[in-house]
């Protein structure tokens, strides 16, 4: 079986050889195996240069570009699929299939590896790095400017007091310290209580913590298809409902957790809406 796969890869590479010999200055056939780079890629280059996106790009629960991705090709990360597309650049992540990356290295197809940034600054630099790879520096700077403008608009207005908040997704998943979402919460005037309780990266936040010391705003996510019933129930647990109206439940879709880049624009908009929703609820309580 291994010999057959290697032979197939070799045959595909030979068929791609003429194209590789006349490689253009900038990649013209790009394959992304990185869900987070997908959303950057589709905004920076003409879509005829996109040979394929990751299959996650079409998942509306994980991707902010799902409607657009329905009209673009995808792969499921197999080496045979990728090599057959004859790309001159493959963008991967540390979560992509190691076997595929090894196969690409063996047959000489260029790939670039990108991590998931854990800071806003790191995410903006990643946009610039991807733009440089694509020969789209001008478009990359425009994207960075758009993101920075959205972040600035989302800042807590002078004179307003912050309100504590926590992300609470199916299974109790929360965004803790050292996450882009946590940084965006702070920027929007919604200090993250998950970090206070030692939650780092993306980890569950115990229900008991929320009940004993509830935040002003709970950023509740949607349920992923196929999630166990128990994971679905915890997001709408009666103990949380009992905290209303003291605690405002606001919508924060799960798809805003997984990536940064241009996703930050939608994320800070959701955080701003949540903040203003909670502020309106507080005013209403004060008027009683």
Explain this structure to me?
It is elongated and about 70 Å long. α7 runs parallel beside α13 and α8 crosses α13. The longest helix has 25 residues. The strands form 3 sheets. A 5-stranded parallel sheet has the order 3-2-1-4-5, with helices on both faces. Strands 6-9-10 form a 3-stranded parallel sheet, with helices on one face. By secondary structure, the chain is α/β, with parallel strands linked by helices. The chain has 2 domains: about 110 residues, Rossmann fold (3-Layer(aba) Sandwich); about 120 residues, Nitrogenase molybdenum iron protein domain (Rossmann fold, 3-Layer(aba) Sandwich), CATH 3.40.50.1980.
Give me the CATH architecture of the largest domain, please: 3-Layer(aba) Sandwich
How many structural domains in the coordinates?
2
Helix content, binned percent: 40-55%
User: Would you identify the regions where 5 or more consecutive residues have pLDDT less than 50?
Assistant: 1-6, 11-22
Strand segment count: 10
Output the radius of gyration.
22 Å
Instruction: Specify the biggest β-sheet.
Output: 5 strands, parallel
Please give the CATH class of the largest domain. Alpha Beta
CATH topology (level 3) name of the largest domain: Rossmann fold
Q: What fraction strand?
A: 5-15%
Order of helices and strands: HEHEHEHEHEHHEEHHEHEHHEH
Structural class: alpha/beta
Question: What is the CATH superfamily label of the largest domain?
Answer: Nitrogenase molybdenum iron protein domain
Mean pLDDT: 88
Count of helix runs? 13
Distance between the termini: 73 Å
Q: In order across it, which strands form the biggest sheet? A: 3-2-1-4-5
Shape: elongated
